[in-house]
Amino acid sequence: MLPSIGSSASSLVAWAVAKPSSRTPEEFGKGSIEGLWASESSNNANVGGSLALAYIAYARFKGKRIHFEDD
After folding, report:
1. Which of 3, 9, 38, 62 makes an SS bond possible with 52, Cβ 3.0 to 4.6 Å?
2. This model's pTM is above 0.90
3. Higher confidence at residue 44 or residue 3?
4. Nearest 5°: CA angle at 23, between 22 and 29?
5. If pLDDT is split at 50, 70 and 90, which confidence band does 38 have?
6. Is the separation of the CB atoms in 10 and 48 below 8 Å?
7. Residues 50-71 pLDDT 10s
8. Distances from the Cα of 13 to the Cαs of 42, 48, 56, 63, 68, in angstroms?
């Protein structure tokens, strides 16, 4: 899991990993349903990783008031 990698990068990595493990890798890039599943499942799974930094920040500053001052 790579927090905050972004959905585009995670979809590309998932597609690239799924292609060699497919029974029909020659269909990738031509509308293969396996490629679509790999890309979309990683896109949906990416949300949790993206929220990891928000959870860390919340845990760090929990109970403290943060003030942003204008310079």
Report:
1. 3
2. no
3. 44
4. 55
5. confident
6. no
7. 677 777 777 777 766 666 666 5
8. 9, 17, 25, 38, 38
- pLDDT for 63 equals 63
Q: Would you say 28 and 51 are in contact if contact means Cβ atoms under 8 Å apart?
A: no
Q: Are 53 and 32 in contact (CB under 8 A)?
A: no
- Count of helix runs (H) and strand runs (E) in the chain: 2, 0
- The domains of the chain are located at 7-61
Residue type at 11 in one-letter notation? S
Token pair belonging to 29: 């890039």
- Give CA–CA dist 68/30, Å, rounded: 50
Crossing angle of helices 33-61 and 7-18, rounded to 10°: 140
